[in-house]
Amino acid sequence: MESLTKRRLSPAELDGLAHRALGSGVTRSTELTDGFANAVWLLTLDDGRDVVLKLSPPPELEQLSYERNLLRMEAAACALAAEAGVPVASVLHAGFDDPVLGGDYLVLSVLDGTPWNQIVLGEAQHAAVRHELGAHLARLNSVTGDTFGYPHAGITGASWREAYLAMVGALLADTERYPTELPLPAGELLARLTAVSGALDEVTTPRLVHFDAWPGNVFLDLTGEPRIQAIIDHERAFWGDPLADLITPTLFVPLLEEDPLLVGYRSVTPVELSGDALVRLDLYRAYLYLILLVENGPRQYPEKDYAPIRDLTAACLTEVLDRL
Length: 324
Hints:
CATH class of the largest domain: Alpha Beta
CATH superfamily of the largest domain: Aminoglycoside phosphotransferase (APH), C-terminal lobe
Helix content: 25-40%
Strand content: 15-25%
Number of strands: 12
Distance between the termini: 32 Å
Strand order of the largest sheet: 1-2-3-5-4
């Protein structure tokens, strides 16, 4: 989708960046437009390699608080996910604070699979892929860290409750820079979430959470029966409660016990959805819905594309807040 956060580079700038990163020039470049925040190109190098370049927004462009140093989080998360047995694109080079262009970038291996959101699978194939996704998310969630929240953005907490409320608080504070229509005033909304945040105290170990595993970020290998080739875009990852990774794949719909996603997750590690766990799920739904509403501030999506998402998100956030 078009977004003000996507930086435009000339062919000469792309060539120079490739030389600095990999020692090879660019013979062909194609912008990949499916993403929402960072600019992404498919580059063919003069040594014959194809690579993907992912570039952060311009340093002077203000973003949401949690979006500071997103590509640094992605580079770290990719390495940790791969160690845990989760299929990801390889990071070929990570450039931080590039001296010529400014900002950060990643050079990634090319995936020859197909994004899940671009094809229609049969019912059995769809269930099999969701089962596989659940298992991969469980493996990713097995990775533990030292602190809760977004260390790369400086939004953390000594406990998961403290970190979650800091994450929500930072997002609501962003609405002072980017006025956003919300179902409740920011202070009242934070108070509503704080009132039930005791349910978060069950989480005592920071675990790696992708928090963006929607079908567009899942590449499929279609050479035989569809299988997951890689999970991409780890930039929104944080350290927190594994339950949060069950939210994005069930965006706008309930998580059902018979969902193959949950069955696949449980094939790797047990998870129970009862009591405080249900409250935690709604807290994570509320946080994701807030992101979808507030992020339009710096990104300025085209109104005709964004309006249906905004309206559905606002309705779902209202429903969650009423339930809480």
